[in-house]
Amino acid sequence: MITNTPTYALTTRKLTLAYEGKVVIESLDLAIPTGKITILVGPNGCGKSTLLKGLGRLLKPKQGVVYLESESIAKLSTKAIAKRLGLLPQSPSAPEGLTVRDLVAQGRYPHQGWLQQWSHEDEKQVDWALSMTQMQEFAHCALDNLSGGQRQRAWIAMALAQNTDILLLDEPTTYLDLAHQIEVLDLLHDLNEQQGKTIVMVLHDLNQACRFGDYLVAIKGGAVYDQGHPERVMTETMVQNVFGLESRIINDPVANTPLCIPISRKSSGKVGAGYQS
C-alpha cells in the first residue's frame, strides 16, 4: 500500500484519467521517489503522456487523487504548483515571433508578484538555463527560425529557469540528434545528482531509459505492468508482454545497465542461431 511520506515526490491513489471522453488511465496507484530519475516506458497510446499530464494537473482526474508530496494537488493554487513542479509537454507551442530569451524568461513567471517584479535572481536563472542548454548564442533569435532540436532545447531551458524541485518532461529528446540527446540526458542526470531534483520523463528509447533512469515504470493499456529498478524491470518477458517484441537483454558494456537487443523477423534466424549452444 502506498503511503504519503516525504520519500515520495508524487503519488497517485486510484487515479483515473480520460482524454476526449475515453478512459486512458484507470484506478492507478503509483509512487514517484523523491530525488530520483523515474522514466515512463511503454508503447504508443498506452497512457504515458496522459499520466504525465495528470501528475502535473494539466488533466483533471475523472476519479482518484494526485498528491504533491503530502498535499492533494487539486487543492493547491496554480502558482503554488508552478513553484514546485515544472512540466514540459510533448510538442509545446509558443506565440509567433517570440525570442528564445523571452521564452526562457516565462519560466520565471511563477516567481513574480505585485511586490516582486523581475529581479537579479530571475536574470541569473535565465542566463544559467541558457548556458546549461547551450542556447546562449540563440538567445535573441526568434523561436520560429530555429531547427526542431534547437527549439526543443529552448523549451527545456524554460523548464530549467522555473527552478522547481520536480521536473516532468514528455519525450525531452524529441527532434534531437543522438549527440544532443545524450547532452540533454547528461544535463538532467547532473541536475538530479548535483541539485537533487526529482525528474520524471517519458522516453521511447529503452536503452537510454535503463542508462539514465533510477526507476522504471512500464505501462501497458493504461495500467502499470511493472515498476522498479531497471535491472529488475527490463526483462525479455516485459519487452514481449508490453511491446509485443522478442528481444535479448544483455549487459551494456559501457554503462553496466540492461541493454535491449530487439529481434526482427529478418534477423531472428541469425540471432537465434547465435544463442544456440
Automatic annotation (TrEMBL):
Organism lineage: Bacteria, Bacillati, Cyanobacteriota, Cyanophyceae, Acaryochloridales
The keyword Transmembrane helix is annotated on this UniProt entry: no
Transmembrane segments annotated in the record for this chain: none
PANTHER family: IRON(3+)-HYDROXAMATE IMPORT ATP-BINDING PROTEIN FHUC (PTHR42771)
Subcellular location(s) per record: Cell membrane
Name of the protein described by the UniProt record: Ferrichrome ABC transporter
CC per GO annotation: plasma membrane
Keyword annotations: ATP-binding, Cell membrane, Ion transport, Iron, Iron transport, Membrane, Nucleotide-binding, Transport
Molecular function via GO: ATP binding; ATP hydrolysis activity
One annotated GO biological process: iron ion transport
Domain ABC transporter span(s) in chain numbering: 10-246
Lineage top rank: taxon: Bacteria
InterPro entries named in the record: AAA+_ATPase, ABC_transporter-like_ATP-bd, ABC_transporter-like_CS, P-loop_NTPase, Siderophore_ABC-ATPase
Major subcellular site: membrane
Membrane topology of the entry: Peripheral membrane protein
